[in-house]
Amino acid sequence: MRPLTSAADRAEAAALVQDRQRQLITRGIHLPDHHAAQFGVRTNSVGLYDHGPDGEEDLAACFLLNRLPDDATGAGMTLSLAYTAPGRHDKVSQLITLWAADYAARINAPWAHGETPSWHAGRDDCVGRLLHRCEDSLTWRVTGSHYAPTGNRSVRLRLIAQRRPELQHLITCAVPLHPSPHPWSLTENPQ
Where are the beta strands (DSSP E) in 37-96? Predict the structure, then answer.
């Protein structure tokens, strides 16, 4: 897990998002076009990489990590625009969940927060199955929903922070523990 600091890294993440969006369109789910563009301009993007036997890296997932100032809500951090590469095994979502709980604990946040779109369920109710999986298999809890000024609806999720020292054997983490000065939400309009 590492920040996407180079233009090439961010372009690779944008391409992953576009590939996933094309796959979702075949299921009747249309996400805003600006999601891919956000990875090209946001400095708070993070990638989960697989490392092959010869040292090659393969981007398995990407998301935006928003560190929020401590406040009465105890938000601490929010993951938004999380996308996995098409054709990836479901274990990628589990790794992101384990990492998010551990990272939240390491920054002394009580929770990791997340957002998932809920504009359209799709022909096969993909969004409903995603929320069911988030709650039942991945231990995220739905805490509500909200509408952006654009009319797009998102579901808010929350995960209990939990330190997992054994995770260092599965995931190398190069994401700094200090806050990003540019918090951003899934439902915010692109700039």
Answer: 45-51, 57-67, 77-84
